[in-house]
């Protein structure tokens, strides 16, 4: 089945329902969105794009994003959404790796930079040629049927440990993810607005699919990204806002809401994930907004779909283990099985820490043109996530860290998140990230990068004294580096590779 058929059906069933809004203004209804997508698909076909060919999309969030995705699927092509914050040279490497036939950019950036690979054509979304290509026709033709394992979305990983790898996600993968959203994460209702404050090249764009099926409205902020004041305004004018946000975005929104006296009116759901949500930050968010939060845990290799902590359990304080549950990432989502395995591959009992393994309908087909990496990552049908965690007897999964981020000091494992949680409880600490650096005596030593609350001062001695009251002595940072901000990628994840480089120069 072709996932573009969801848009086709919504266009027939709800032709006049608003499909895309830019801010408060309607850009197009569902009938127009589907016709624009089909018109663009014909244009792509005329350029020689066919089933299985790759079409890249290298642009910030925009009103045209969803029609481009569906235009690719309408002819059975594979879409390659590229993080728009990448350097054009990095984008060019992706184009070469996937042998893209066409790339759509905002204004022709790749050709202007002289980085367009041979055999790849560029279409500028801002051009008159694009406007003509996407001009809706009078008729609407059903998208062709496809096999479930046809590749729909080629997602390139962030490449923090080397060149990024292309994750092959099939139409069946995306459908299973969408079903799980409707079953486990949030129920979509008439009047809901799916807001794209996070990059549509990643999870936010994937979450558009169940909203397409439901015929709900999609909102592109005028800013094109995450602006807390803009979100607060849209919540008041539109209502029913539902959006994905990284924990760092939630923190910024809560800070802005406090300053504005905003208590979440008009926001229905905030799905958070993509990084650690620290207990102190979540408590603050719940106090400000109430039970509007749902947590998910996933990876590009099993998109947005490993575990879920529903809103009632995020807000619950009645269960004897409510704090541990709130600090977890919930239980396995409906389409997958989750296990904790030891270094020998054996399943571990409740409470023991090991690698998180996932099997189910959302797990990727494999990595693009990388059979060896695929064989290392998918073993007997189980996805090796590279994340470490433990599961309690009730199936609630608690993350400790990425396996590559674990600090081994004096032969003992130290999980950075434990140290970060402790430091964030200090009233002067706004953000923190903990890394390990080489140590000639201990193997590695703990280093904390700290952002203090604006207008307040703090020093290493104060935080060291605080840690003595919170965590074991061997886990305490040996060094504190105070900084104005933590480096993050466009998805809000802290770039620990940059912090390790910086720690090596600040001795």
Keywords, separated by commas or semicolons:
five-stranded antiparallel sheet, GMP Synthetase, Chain A, domain 3, alpha/beta, single chain, globular, 507 residues, nine-stranded mixed sheet, 18 helices
Question: In short, what is this structure?
Answer:
This protein has 507 residues and is an alpha/beta fold. It is 33% helix and 27% strand.
Task: Give your account of this protein's structure.
By secondary structure, the protein is α/β, with parallel strands linked by helices. It has a domain at 409-505: ANL, C-terminal domain (GMP Synthetase, Chain A, domain 3, 2-Layer Sandwich). The protein is built from 18 helices and 26 strands. The protein is globular and about 70 Å long. The model has no long low-confidence stretch (mean pLDDT 93).
Mean pLDDT: 93
The share of residues in extended strands comes to 25-35%
Secondary structure class reads alpha/beta
Strand arrangement across the biggest beta sheet? 2-1-10-9-11-12-13-14-15
In the CATH classification, which architecture of one domain applies?
Answer: 2-Layer Sandwich
Number of helices: 18
Shape: globular
CATH superfamily of one domain: ANL, C-terminal domain
Using the coordinates above, name the CATH class of one domain. Alpha Beta
Number of strands: 26
Q: What distance lies between the first and last C-alpha atoms, to the nearest angstrom?
A: 57 Å
Instruction: Give the helix level as a range of percent.
Output: 25-40%
CATH topology of one domain: GMP Synthetase, Chain A, domain 3
């Amino acid at each position: 089945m072709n996932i573009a058929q969801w848009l086709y059906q919504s266009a027939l069933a709800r032709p006049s329902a608003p499909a895309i809004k830019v801010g408060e203004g309607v850009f197009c209804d569902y009938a127009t969105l589907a016709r624009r997508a089909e018109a663009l698909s014909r244009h792509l076909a005329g350029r020689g794009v066919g089933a299985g060919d790759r079409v890249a999309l290298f642009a910030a969030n925009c009103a045209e994003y969803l029609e481009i995705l569906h235009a690719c699927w309408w002819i059975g092509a594979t879409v390659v959404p590229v993080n728009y914050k990448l350097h054009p040279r990095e984008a060019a490497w992706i184009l070469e790796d996937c042998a893209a036939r066409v790339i759509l950019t905002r204004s022709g950036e790749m050709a202007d930079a002289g980085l367009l690979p041979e055999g790849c054509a560029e279409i500028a979304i801002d051009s008159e040629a694009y406007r003509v290509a996407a001009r809706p026709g009078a008729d609407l033709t059903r998208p062709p049927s496809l096999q479930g394992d046809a590749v729909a979305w080629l997602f390139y990983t962030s490449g923090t440990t080397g060149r990024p790898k292309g994750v092959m996600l099939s139409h069946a993968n995306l459908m299973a993810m969408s079903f799980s959203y409707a079953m486990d994460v949030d129920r979509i209702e008439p009047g809901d607005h799916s807001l794209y404050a996070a990059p549509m090249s990643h999870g936010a764009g994937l979450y558009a699919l169940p909203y397409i099926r439901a015929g709900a409205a999609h909102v592109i902020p005028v800013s094109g990204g995450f602006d807390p004041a803009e979100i607060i305004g849209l919540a008041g004018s539109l209502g029913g806002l539902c959006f994905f946000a990284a924990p760092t975005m939630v923190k910024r929104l809560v800070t802005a809401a406090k300053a504005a006296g905003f208590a979440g009116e008009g926001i229905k759901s905030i799905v958070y994930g993509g990084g650690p949500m620290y207990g102190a930050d979540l408590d603050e968010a719940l106090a400000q907004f109430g039970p509007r939060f749902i947590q998910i845990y996933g990876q590009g290799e099993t998109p947005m779909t490993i575990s879920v902590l529903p809103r009632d359990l995020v807000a619950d304080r009645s269960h004897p283990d409510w704090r541990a549950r709130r600090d977890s990432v919930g239980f396995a989502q409906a389409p997958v099985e989750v296990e904790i395995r030891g270094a020998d591959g054996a399943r571990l009992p409740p409470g023991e820490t090991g690698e998180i393994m996932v099997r189910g309908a959302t797990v990727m087909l494999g990595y693009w043109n990388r059979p060896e990496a695929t064989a290392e990552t998918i073993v007997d049908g189980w996805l090796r996530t590279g994340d470490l965690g433990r599961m309690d007897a009730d199936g609630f999964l608690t993350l400790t860290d990425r396996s590559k981020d674990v600090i081994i000091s004096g032969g003992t494992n130290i999980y950075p998140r434990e140290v970060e949680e402790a430091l964030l409880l200090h009233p002067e600490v706004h953000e923190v990230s903990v890394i390990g650096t080489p140590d000639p005596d201990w193997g590695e030593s703990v280093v904390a990068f700290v952002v203090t609350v604006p207008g307040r001062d703090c020093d290493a001695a104060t935080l060291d004294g605080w840690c003595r009251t919170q965590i074991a002595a061997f886990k305490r940072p040996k060094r504190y580096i105070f900084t104005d901000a933590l480096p993050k990628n466009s998805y809000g994840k802290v770039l620990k590779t940059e912090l390790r480089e910086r720690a090596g120069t600040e001795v």
